[in-house]
Predict the structure.
Amino acid sequence: MKRVFTLTEKAWQGSTLQYRWQKTLGNYLAVTGPDCTVKIFDRHGQKKDEINLPGNCVAMDWDKDGDTLAVIADKSSSIYLWDANTHKPSQLDSGMRDQMSFLLWSKVGSLLAVGTAKGNLLIYNQQTSRKIPILGKHTKRITCGCWSTQNLLALGSEDKMVTVSNHEGDTMRQTTVRAEPSEIQFSVMKTDERAASGESTVSVVVGKKTLFLFNLNDPDNPIELAFQQRYGNIIAYRWYGDGYIMIGFSQGYFVVISTHIREIGQELFQAHNHKDSLTSIAISQSLNKAASCGDNCIKIHDLSELKEMYAIINLDDETKGLDHLSWTDDGQLLAISSQRGTLHVFLTKLPILGDTCGTRLAVLTSLLEVTVANHVEGERPITVSVEVEPNFIAVGPYHIAVGMNNRAWFYALGENGVEKLKDMEYLGTVASMHINSDYAAALFEGKVQLHMIESEHLEAQEERETRLFPGRDDKCRILCHALTADFLIYGTDTGLIHCFYIEDWQYINEYRHTVSVKKIFPDPNGTRLVFIDDKSDGFVYCPVNDSLYEVPNFSPTIKGILWENWPVDKGVFIAYDDDKVYTYVFHKDTIQGSKVILAGGTKLPYSHKPLLLYNGELTCQTLSGKTNNIILSTHSFMSSVKDSGNSDQTRMLTQTLMLKRFTEAWELCKVLNDHSAWTELGRACLHHMEVEFAIRVYRMVGNVGMVMSLEQIKGIEDQNLLAGHLAMFTNDFNQAQDLYLASSCPIAALEMRRDLQHWDSALQLAKRLAPKQIPFISKEYAIQLEFTGDYVNALAHYEKGMTSDNKYQEHDEACLAGVARMSIRMGDIRRGVNQAIKHPSRLLKKDCGAILEGMKQFSEAAQLYEKGQYYDKAASVYIRCKNWAKVGELLPHVTSPKIHLQYAKAKEADGRYKEAAMAYENAKDWDNVIRIHLDHLNNPEEAVRIVRETQSIDGAKMVARFFLSLNDYGSAIQFLVMSKCNDEAFQLAQQHSQMEVYADIIGNNATMEDYQSIALYFEGEKKHLQAGKFFLLCGQHGRALKHFLKCPNTEDNLAIEMAIETVGQAKDEALTNQLIDYLMGESDGMPKDAKYLFRLYMALKQYREAARTAIIIAREEQSAGNYRNAHDVLFSMYTELQTQKIKIPSEMATNLMILHSYILVKIHVKRGDHLKGARMLIRVSNNISKFPSHIVPILTSSVIECHRAGLKNSAFGFAAMLMRPEYRNKIDLKYKKKIEAMVRRPDTSELEEETKPCPYCAFQLAECGLLCPGCKNNLPYCIATGRHMVKEDWTVCPHCDFPALYSEFKILLETETVCPMCSESLSASQLKKVTDCTPYLKPDEVDQ
């Protein structure tokens, strides 16, 4: 609240003041103190007049219009009157003898009531100058009174009486009260039945404690309201609203009660507003505010929301406290007097006057003060003191104008402050004014005067100095106008909008509207404007291209429009009324053309008037003269996006898209990270034809197709063509067509319709745009019509599609094919078939054939199928016609078994069995082929062949039955088994003693029950081997073993083998022991061959025992001279033990090595490699005891080979051994003499053996040595040479994994084809050199 002025007079100091505001206008304030004068001030605190009195002022009051002030004083019987219009005082003699104590003007007439100290009354009529004295109205001093709106006068007196009189002074009602009355008021009590008699309730404070309510219509039932003791005395009270009373109490309490009968006595609101005391309360109905004063502060409440404090004014210099509070009738000024004799006046309501120019604001901030500010550009506010309270304000780039009535004052806003330029009078009361940098335009009485603000004294400028609109010839009144930097724009009552270009000093544009134009609001550039017409509809008008767009959802209560001043948001404007602001956006470039949309609404706080819109922030002017900023709800995205919830962010995205704020929308989409949000942004970019931005968005989303499409069109300058493409991308095809047709490339519309297969539209367009395209479109359309079953139109379009041009032969053929199909469909079969036969296409013949087949035209259908080489189809249709001759002709070409089958059945029915059999065979119906061969052609051999080839179960049954009829039981059984009839086969075998045949045939493919049946049969026949075999198959191992052991010796070998297999499978210790006893001969005293025991151990996986047995067997074989057998037994055992990861006994390893060395001798000697042969023979001869049956031949060979190889000393040693008596006579005569000669003349020369490194420790030892002296390891030997292995030359046999020297093994395999160890086929190419031989060098692998 702004303090306007403070009044202090020396004479008033230390005493309380009495003052009254002029009623209605509030232009004058009459104040009196203890100095016997009444001073009159204007509303700015300037003293205007002074009335001198003979004594102190007792009472004063203004009449209802504020024209006359009446004053009564001590020691005088005169009434002093002061005229506000002439400022002249006058005196009136009251004619009363006693002292006057009370004075009050009527609320409705020119009646003045004056009361005296003795209770007499005078009513003076100022109009008629009539005085009515009423003596004895009261017996004591009249202290208070009140006029009603019905001109009734209520008076209160010290005689504790309240009287109600009419304007003649006649008493209508009177009542007695308990104590002295004060603060008497008239009002209307809140009742259920509203009485029509107006103000019928008199309220009065009784004894400063209670409130007495006296209803004139019900005088016998007055209401007296008492209050809480702690509140103190009633200081003042005021009626307001619908029967509410506000009461102020001395202890600082502020209470509201209702007089409604149901609520009476209840406090609706209570506040302890002042700590120590309350001295006055006041209500302003026009402001809807209440004020209370006490201590040294004023508190103001809003009557609609009492709980909220509207304002607090602290008067710290008033230490003695405040006294009386009073508002002007219009609520603009609030006066407060203090206990120490000062009077303060505060501004509580200012006229809301303001104007803008760009982002500059000019606002009335006090009654005589205008503030100019530009917060956007950061300029310092400038305060302009003006001479009068203005009715209008206008601001421009360099000037400000204020004015009232028909005058305006102009000020220049310079860098050095404000300079008053001039004041100007117009020919009528100015309704509004606008100014730009050079000119001012004032609207008064239907005319606009345009004139220069600062005249430049140049003759050339004279005619441009001023101009009055409209011209003399125009019969219209101007209702609104606006001034931009370049244009004066005005609207008239005849609906004309004129644009006057100041630069050229002439009209440049005129628009005629249907009704009168009330208000006009151009945008900052003047290129667009919004106007409101007489019907309260809003429109956006663009003078540039003379286009008009209606503003949607435009409220009839709209007071004004503001355009967005932020350069980026060019098309945004708001429309506002008292409660709400509506945000609109004018979209100039969209696919649908230009249009206005409503973006949203924002609630406007109470008594806020919008002045300026900048970047979504609305600056409003308030009653207090200050400005307040509001963010529009449509711009909430400008606050923090990250803190908002998901739904808020989605709403913000919609706002940004409406306002075309694509950069902010991009950021929001990044935060949302939602595909649908990106898609929405992309769609909006397309809608607004922002192609570059749309490409960015769709690239982000990964929509490759859209990006490529947009890249192709982004350079198009023709707006219609571009919009057409974009409309097509958004699936708005009709819009796209309209845009294409309006563009420079109308053919695009045809291309689009063709791509969409909208053939109807395409044909219409083709007639206008490209007649040559009609045949091709007709063909496409015909295809679609044929698909939907509209054959009549399809035929017509196929016929239209013919070009008869060799260039388009393929197209014409397609049309002819269509004609053929449609002709058949329409029933013109002959034409259709002829066309199809003539046509080169096979497929057409098939299609037409299918159509004819569906129409039951079989002969034509078959004919077309045959022509088209669809032989299966043709044959099938001929069969339906029973045309077997044709079917027979086609059969060689037919692949379908079904047709062959049909043909075969027909031939069989005709008794032509051979052809039937062939047809059945082609149809792969083997059962019928077999049946015909057996039943009709008597060809069982062929039937048997087919059964064997095809494994047909039913065929096998038929063959079995055939053989049974011939008593060939073996064959019958065989085919019964083949046909899975095992039970029948078994019974047949049983009946005809053919069980062996059955058993052989059934093999391994039968069930346990089958095997058991066979076993039991053989058991009964005492055929132990077969019985045992089938008991084994059905898992009865005990019975199987029993039968095998019963077998006579002739079958011994097989029976024992089977017994071993049985025990191996059974894994039963008792059965194992039984078989071992049998093999050892304990049961019959005949030990069996050791090999069976070996096999048993192998079957039982008892590898150690098997190994021992193997050694024994090998020894026996060796003794018998079967060295290869012994080698193979040991080798197989060796590999088995290795597989089972069991240590190999050293005896086995040594024996295998010696036997292998013996086998190598033969290989090397055969190859002529005598040295290697000799070395191996030396090793064998050193262990000659292992070869007892061939001692002499081996020693003989050793002598010869050593001799040949130059190992003379070794040869002599073995020759000497042969000369022993036990061997001498056994020497072959061929060599005997030579050997004897060798012994007689010994040659001890010896070829020294080469050394090679040990693979374990690299010790150099003889290459045939297998025990390393260095590390004492048994060394692995080469299976090709018998030498010890060398790390660098290592390979293994891929079959048995035994090592060999790579180089030597390769040489050996040049002549040999098998591995010397495992005898598996091998070639040199299969060998691979082993680089890491560590796995083979495990010394503990052999059990030492």
